[in-house]
Q: What sequence folds into this?
């Protein structure tokens, strides 16, 4: 039986308003709802008085203005970016210009043979590069960077160990699975990143899209099981003689709206690349969406 992920889509945030979620933690959601951003991109504020901002969001002047108004006279000391998609990092430039705070991230967006993918932010390069395990801190808070590639090669999650909180970016979301789009997205890396979350003792996740995930380990386990289910569905398609991604989409993603079938095809390609790399599937020629796949 297919794995059921306990999604919670009951999330209706106010736009342009800084909400207090817990002591030392606030959120403001950008007005950029869509099929891949859900209700919009959440920007988190950690600390009081001297604060870090996580994922400043898309290049929307109204969002940046509302964020700055909500901060008032507080000092932004760190601008942290989980990854460089256009709904997460572009507003870092405007926030830096307004506050003087340096930006922090794993690095610029990865490049494939055709340059940066659609949806990647080509303009962001962090002032300070964070490696796995690096920490940043301010008065009353300390955040640790976790390199969690898969959704993108430069994806970071940020842990607040004293509060057992994790800001997972787009690695884990409560409303949907993440799109894994090669060449920068990598399914093997994504699964390994999920496995590493199971080794942690975080009690609550605050993703950049959607509401919080409480009791996150069973949720992460369901995400992993879902991807394994997809692998079995791919293998079943191959046994039935369906050798191209376009042939597999109607069978595997019958419950997904056609409007997002293009993104589903990218994740299916990522899964096939992973199966080829692990020796479970054979590919004739270069691995891309037009490739012909088969069982060894």
A:
């Amino acid at each position: 039986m297919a794995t059921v992920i306990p999604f919670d889509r009951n999330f209706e945030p106010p736009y342009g308003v800084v909400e207090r979620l817990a002591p030392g933690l606030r959120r403001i959601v950008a007005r950029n709802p869509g099929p891949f951003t859900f209700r919009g991109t959440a920007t988190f504020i950690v600390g009081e008085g001297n604060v870090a901002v996580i994922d400043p969001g898309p290049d929307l002047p109204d969002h940046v203005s509302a964020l700055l108004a909500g901060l008032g006279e507080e000092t932004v000391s760190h601008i942290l970016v989980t990854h460089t998609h256009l709904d997460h990092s572009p507003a870092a430039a405007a926030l830096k210009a307004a506050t003087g705070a340096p930006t922090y991230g794993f690095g610029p967006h990865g490049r494939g043979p055709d340059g940066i993918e659609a949806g990647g932010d080509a303009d962001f390069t962090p002032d300070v590069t964070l490696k796995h395990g690096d920490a940043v801190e301010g008065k009353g808070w300390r955040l640790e960077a976790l390199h969690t590639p898969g959704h993108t090669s430069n994806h970071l999650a940020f842990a607040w160990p004293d509060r057992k909180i994790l800001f997972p970016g787009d690695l884990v979301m409560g409303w949907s699975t993440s799109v894994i789009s090669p060449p920068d997205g990598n399914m093997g890396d994504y699964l390994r990143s999920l496995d590493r979350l199971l080794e942690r003792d975080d009690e609550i996740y605050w993703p950049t899209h959607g509401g919080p995930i409480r009791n996150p380990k069973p949720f992460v386990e369901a995400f992993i099981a879902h991807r394994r289910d997809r692998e079995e569905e791919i293998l079943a398609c191959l046994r039935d003689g369906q050798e191209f991604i376009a042939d597999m989409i109607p069978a595997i993603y019958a419950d997904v709206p056609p409007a997002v079938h293009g993104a589903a095809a990218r994740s299916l390609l990522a899964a096939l690349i992973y199966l080829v790399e692990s020796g479970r599937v054979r590919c004739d020629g270069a691995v891309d969406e037009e490739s012909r796949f088969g069982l060894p």
Remarks:
- Helices lie at 61-71, 92-99, 187-197, 216-239, 245-252, 261-277.
- The two ends are 26 Å apart (CA to CA).
- The CA atoms of residues 46 and 210 lie 18 Å apart.
